[in-house]
Predict the 3D structure of the following.
Amino acid sequence: MIGLGTYAFFWQHSDRVDEPLSLRGAFEATRALEVDLFQICDFAPLEAMSDTALRDAAATARDLNITIELGTKGIEPARLTRFLELAEIFGAHVVRSMLYGPHSRPTLAEAEQRLRDALPAYQASGVTLALETYEQVATTDLVALIEAVGSDHLGLCLDPANVVARLELPRDCVEATAPYVANVHVKDFAFARQPGWVGFTYGGARMGEGLHDYPHLLRTVRPRERGATEPPVNEVVEHWLSWQGDAQTTVRIERDWTRTTLDYLRSTT
C-alpha cells in the first residue's frame, strides 16, 4: 500500500507557517489525495496528547478509512511499551523506530536484549517493529541484529537515502536489507554544488529527478508482491525539502513533491 507520512507534511506541520496543519488536517489531506495509509512518524505532539485526544484522532482516521502506522526513535523499554499501547489505540500494525533515541545509545548487545524483551508483546499484539536504516548504525550491523533476534515481528524500515552520510551506497543498502524489509520510506535525493564550488550539499529532490534508483528497489525488495500469508510492505512518502525562503513557496513545493511522488508510485504499479 502507498501511504503518506508526517515527513510529507513537515513544513505544513511546522510553526513557520501561519496555521500549522493538525493531525486531523493531515488525515483529511491524505484522504483528499486518495491515499489510504498514513504514518505518524516522529510527530512530537502525539506523545503529549491525552488518551481522549488520541482516541478522537484514531476515530477520525477510521472515519476516513485511513490505516495508521506509527514511528518513533529509540528502543528503550518504556518507549517500546508506550508505542505498543498507541498502536492498539490506532489499530496500527507497524511501529517504525531507530536503535538510538534522544537519550539512549545502546550497544548492539544491549539492543539485542531490549528487542528480545519487547518482541513477545509485539508479536502477541500482531504489531511489527521496523528499525530504520540510517547513518548512525551500519546497515550490516542492523541486518546482523535482525538475524540474531530472529523474530517475524522485527524487520527493517528501508530508507536508502540515509546511509549515504555513512558513505554507504543506496543500492548496496537495498540489496543487503531486502529479505528483512517491513516498511519503505520513499523519497528522492541528490547532491548539489555549493556556491563557489567549495563542496556539495546533500538533500531532497523531486521524485524521479534525483539519484534514487527506485525501480531497482522495487525489483529487489518486491514490496507489492507479498503472498497472502505475508505481512504487507507499505511504501510511505516523505521528503527532504529545505526551507525555500518563505512559507508560501515552501508549502507549495512540498505539496507538489507529494503529488509528484504519488503519481510516480502509482505509475509503477
Notes: The CA atoms of residues 76 and 156 lie 17 Å apart. The chain is about 40% helix and 20% strand. The longest helix spans residues 247-267. The beta strands are 2-5, 37-41, 67-71, 94-97, 128-132, 154-158, 181-186, 188-193, 200-205, 234-237.
